[in-house]
Amino acid sequence: MYYGSIEAGGTKFVCAVGRDNGEIITSTQMNTERPEKTMPQVLDFFRQYQLKSIGIGSFGPIDIATQSYTYGHITSTPKLDWRDYPLVQTIQSALDVPISFNTDVNAAALGEATLGAARGLDSCLYITVGTGIGAGAVVRGQVLQGLSHPEMGHILIRRHPDDDYQGNCPYHKDCLEGLAAGPAIEKRWGKKGMDLSDRPEVWELEAYYIAQALVQYAMILSPKKMILGGGVMKQFQLFPLIRSKFQELLNGYFDFPEVTDQIDEYIVSPGLGDQAGITGGLVLAKQVAGRPYKSAE
Ligand code: ADP
Ligand code: ZN
Hints:
The chain is of the alpha/beta class. It is 35% helix and 20% strand.
């Protein structure tokens, strides 16, 4: 028997079947269209296998509070077809297995903590800088959850004095995501990030914002490692810029060897590459395998 994993993204769903050591036996992906189009494909894929459980890392916002009336739903997403969609209930009523439901970045953080760059550590932070910005954290081996999942992409940061781009978060305008996600880069500079590799000022500014976010995460969560993924982080020249800005902003305050001497191993790329989320889904699945659960009506 295998575990199932779903990385539910705004542009595509990745579905995988694998083992709890992170080994993926088979996987497939489908475009994120309307739920009525995408979900039957997801269910047909998993129906081919005998599964112990399924772990889902989803785009959000989502309701992960198990006592909540709308637990398992994608909630106020700007993707209108998916707003208030009961993702967990749909899968559970079709496949009848326990499901663990969390955010895409929490799944990735758990994958990295268990089998990736933070393997052997009981805490880490995972941030994705892509179409949006989101971060998940593992604390004492568990994904961090409060009222709901954290929304670390929407923190408020200090604007660069030379940056007159207004920001494009529909809620906050110039929050971190509004100033530093892929679409903000494109709107500010008039080209997509991947076509701006040779413009140092683009990445200096990007590092200025991301480093501020990492300082806040470090001050609040004190993670043992920070892992930076997502499309924008494919600009690997960002890493040294972010590391030195991070140290400059801390100004000697967070005085640990990890930060002062081994920063190259403290702020890193995902050890699992683009598989962090889907691997994390397998780890989530394992956590709920064999647990009693309420069958969806
Ligand atoms: P998503 O966030 O939708 O899951 P990605 O993590 O690939 O997907 O992020 C997509 C965003 O990242 C887009 O805004 C895109 O322009 C930007 N991006 C993708 N690849 C690169 C790259 N190599 N360099 C800079 N920006 C990139
Ligand atoms: Zn925001």
